[in-house]
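Hey,
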Amino acid sequence: MLNHVKRALVIEPHPDDLVIGCGGITQKLIAQGADVHCLLMSHVPPNYRKIYDDSGKYSEYDGNSRMLEADKAAGILGLSERSIAFGHEWHHKLDAMPLSDLVSAMEACVREQEPDLVLVPERSFNQDHIAVYEAFKVVMRPHFFRGTVLAYETTMEREFEPNVLVPLTDAQMATKLEACKAYKSQLGTPNHLFSLETMELAMRYRGRLLYTDGAEAFRLVRGAYL
């Protein structure tokens, strides 16, 4: 499925979604010579908050630092191209944006990048992930975009049933964990959905479904071999 990919687009609602869901597959695509572009849907506000542990309490972090962490993670993975669709006022508020605006931003990127593979976040408990997924269903109408679409997991999916598994080598898993480690403002305690422990467990678990050391899981939304 991946061998024919020459250009790929990863749609990322927030910085760190790509590394969580696609930090392995992007390495494989780049290694085979494919161009990989990231469309980040919004900047992060200068000050934002996050729950890091089981206390249930929010702690503030510097949004500008998170954007720098995204740059560092991209460098570790070998990604060099990113565009940003909207300003920080839409961070975690994409569900409040008119659907037509989300669609237009994605269409513009698809038109410019001409990808044959697009990776979108699976529907999850996060409202931005839901909004982005639903908007891309409009973009993928066949008279506009006819390529392959995979939905990736970010540990918060409601009813994720993967039917595509991409095996990862030990080196690729180590690089993905190193890229995760770049997000110092986001990593939580071991039981948190985004921690190095959780990321490794997820890769090892998906790998067992292939009888291999590690893997990433996706749901095939549409397969196209053009």
